[in-house]
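Protocol step 4 of 6: structure prediction from sequence.
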Amino acid sequence: MEGYKVFFTEWNSSPQVKEATKKGKRNQSLTPTTFSLIHCTDFADRYERQILPLLHAGYIILSDRYCYTAFARDAARGCDRAWLRDLYKFAKKPDILFFFNLKPEIAGNRILTGRQKLKYYEAGMDLGLSPNSIESFKLFQEKIYQEYLLMAEEFNFIFIDASTEPNIQHREIRGQIEEKIDLQKYKWKVKI
């Protein structure tokens, strides 16, 4: 880790919200707005309990997806983009925002290869795109991808070609971070 104060967080349900989310998914009773509000509550809990305290403590936070996942997914479900931006305005904007660009059909095939069955909301079945879950999933993923592309300029995405070898992606990411972030201020201070 080279002596940097780093914390990794990903999009996971917080204990406070997990049961409500599971119940809504199980009953297939979540509307796009309700789904969006639950996920925002979930993110806000993680933001206030994990991310914000560590930012104040001088950590580099690496976040898998952050609020941009909600912007793309919820807009693909029909939620108003301006409303979504307003909903998450409490969250600090990242210093660097990487977008791992991969065509939806390739990304979708990677996901489908590792799963026996798609979940109802994951497949976008709530949108009525197709009665076939795999076809619905592919259509939903395309809608999400298009939302990400719409956000690219607005949020200054740095595109990473996710079809290249991981070591190539790693070098590119590392170069961008070294160019844009003063890493020395995130080093652990060792007292002797």
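Step 5 (inspection) to follow. The helical segments are 15-27, 32-56, 68-76, 81-87, 104-113, 133-154, 166-180.
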